[in-house]
Amino acid sequence: MKYVLGIDLGTSGTKTVLFDQNGRAAASCTVEYPLYQPHNGWAEQDPMDWYNAAVTTIKAVLEKSGVDKRDVVSLGISGQMHGLVMLDKDGQVLRRSIIWCDQRTAKECEEIHEKVGRARLIEITANPALTGFTLSKLVWVRNNEPEIYARCRHILLPKDFVRYMLTGDYATEISDASGMQMVDVPKRVWSEELFRTLGLEMDWLAKIYESPEVTGHISAEAAAKTGLSEDTLVVGGAADNMAAAVGTGVVEDGRAFATIGTSGVVYAHTSQLAIDPHGRVHTFCGPVPGSWIVLGCTQAAGLSLKWFRDNFCAAEKEAAPLMNADPYDLMNREAAQSPIGSNKLLYAPYLMGERTPHLDADCRGMFFGLSAMHTRRDLLRAVMEGVTFSLADALNVLREMGVNPSSMLACGGGGRSPLWRQMLADVFNCPVATTVNTEGPALGVAILAGVGAGLYSSVPDACRQMIQVNPAQAPIAENVPAYARVYEVYRQLYPANREVFKALAAL
User: Fold this and answer.
1) Predicted confidence band at 113 (pLDDT cuts at 50, 70, 90)?
2) Contact 387, 259 (CB under 8 A)
3) Cα(29)–Cα(74) distance, integer angstroms
4) Cβ atoms of 70 and 231 closer than 8 Å
5) Is the C-alpha dihedral spanning 86, 91, 93, 94 positive or negative?
6) What angle do CA 371, 374, 379 make, to 5 degrees?
7) What is the distance between the alpha carbons of residues 507 and 497, in angstroms, rounded to a whole number?
8) For 34-53, b where at least 16 C-beta lie within 10 A, e where not — what string?
9) pLDDT digit string (tens) for 410-457?
10) Residues 6 or more apart from 311 whose CB is under 8 A from it?
């Protein structure tokens, strides 16, 4: 039996899972690490935390499983998108990584639009300039930290830094690279025009591979630290959302998924390039060679519920270990006791600004409609409903573009909640299912690793062999119009407060 490793480098932690070639998990391990927010709207992490977590989790799953290292033929890494890792000429980290949810670069986005032209930028990168993307972060460092910029010789994405530390290779792959806003997305190559116009250094960029392509193998140093063989191959891997798509089998036209992780995403695969001219949703290169994907992203999906848990659910956190339960399960039970609409209470999940469909770094979260009758269970349910409505905003844009899935797969931490899945089914008005294996991104990059090692002929073929789907939760007929009425009120929150958000940001 051959085995493949999937490493999922997330915002809250890194999870590594060892799979056999039939997709069964042999062992898994997760290590968490901190998020630094030195100013309002900023978000940074230490790249060495990611690497140390990868080493720790790889070593742990090998020890837990008892699998011979020579049978681990390849690995893939899934990574949080858009993060900027800057290295000097010796490959040393120059500063903490500015990660995907950081919102400091509004002025740099204006600068990029001014120099490149908004329409031309969308033609090249399939997206307008956004605060979350890597390009604006690099321009910010040039504008604000010139001494660090002057020492830079390499820029990498989070997962590609871990790859570099494991292999010694400066490499990336097309799905994650296309989220940097530095790639000519229709042509699937770095954009020389963009770098020339902005005066940036193209020789800082890593070589681009397709997601299942082999980029190198484990170095002697990394083998000694992790317990892997130096013969273990490393494939391109994928951005977290693209890896989740592979892990749920969304690798062919007509398929879509919704994920509720730290951020929330609605994602659809397409073999034809499709770009929203208004820039409300994102088009990136897909993990299947020659494909593209369209996705909408809400910044604070699971993050909203985690924020509520950490600040208002001490009782659940204390009771959960005594009940042999997860605090989120107890919170779900509370939320289920509040009716649809949370007794006329709405939540806008803009804790970190917002991407789809508003593209507004200044908007902030809110509870709307609070009264003395409301209890904590109403606030809990409102948070879950608000995140669901935000995902519906994204799905509606995809539907405008002609992408109208007949069913949806759910993944991420929130996707494990039957209550949240039923909300998705009722609000989306389509069946929502989960896969039997819930490893998501880790399974996705393990599948890519298996293709790269020659265990499967193609990504779709590997998905058909390794992924099974549970029975779907269908929409409840009477819930669909009830949610639709609440959603119509929710949709008025952002336009009614747009100018207030700007005034608040200016204080």
Assistant:
1) very high
2) no
3) 18
4) yes
5) negative
6) 110
7) 16
8) ebeeeeebebbbbbebbbbb
9) 988 899 999 999 999 999 999 999 998 888 899 999 999 999 999 999
10) none
The yes or no reply on domain 3-249+437-466 and CATH 3.30.420.40 is: yes
Predicted confidence at residue 421, as pLDDT, reads 97
The DSSP H or E segment spanning 6 is: strand 3-9
By CB atoms closer than 10 A (0-12, 13-18, 19+), residue 378 is: buried
Nearest to 303 by CA among 358, 347, 257: 347
Bridge-based pairing of strands 214-217 and 233-235 is antiparallel
Cite the beta strand spans of 89-188 per DSSP E: 97-98, 154-156, 171-173, 183-184
Count other Cβ atoms within 10 Å, centred on residue 321: 10
3-249+437-466 and 298-434+476-505 share one fold = yes
* Given 240, 362, 393, 426, the catalytic residue: 240
Instruction: Look at the alpha carbons of 277, 278, 279, 281 in this order and tell me if their dihedral is positive or negative.
Output: negative
Beta strands in 132-204 (DSSP E): 154-156, 171-173, 183-184, 189-190
- Domain 298-434+476-505 top-level CATH class: alpha beta
Give the containing element (helix H, strand E) for 61: helix 47-65
Q: Decide if 179 contacts 284 (C-beta within 8 A).
A: yes
Tell me which H or E stretch contains 116. helix 106-116
What is the C-alpha to C-alpha distance for residues 70 and 230, in angstroms, rounded to an integer?
A: 9
- By residue count, the chain amounts to 507
What's the rounded mean pLDDT across residues 492-499?
98
| Closest to 417 in 3D by CA, of 336, 484, 339 | 336
Assess whether pLDDT exceeds 90 at residue 407.
no
Torsion sign, CA atoms 167, 169, 174, 180: positive
Phi and psi, residue 77, nearest 5°: -120, 130
- Model pLDDT, residue 254: 82
β-partners of residue 93 are: 87
Q: Where are the domains of the chain?
A: 3-249+437-466, 298-434+476-505
Q: Is the pLDDT of residue 277 over 90?
A: no
Report phi then psi at 427, rounded to 5: -75, -40
139-147, Cβ contacts within 8 angstroms, sequence gap of 24 or more: 139/105, 139/108, 139/111, 139/112, 139/198, 139/200, 140/98, 140/104, 140/105, 140/108, 141/84, 141/86, 141/95, 141/98, 142/200, 143/107, 143/108, 143/111, 145/95
Q: Would you call 240 a catalytic residue per the annotation? A: yes
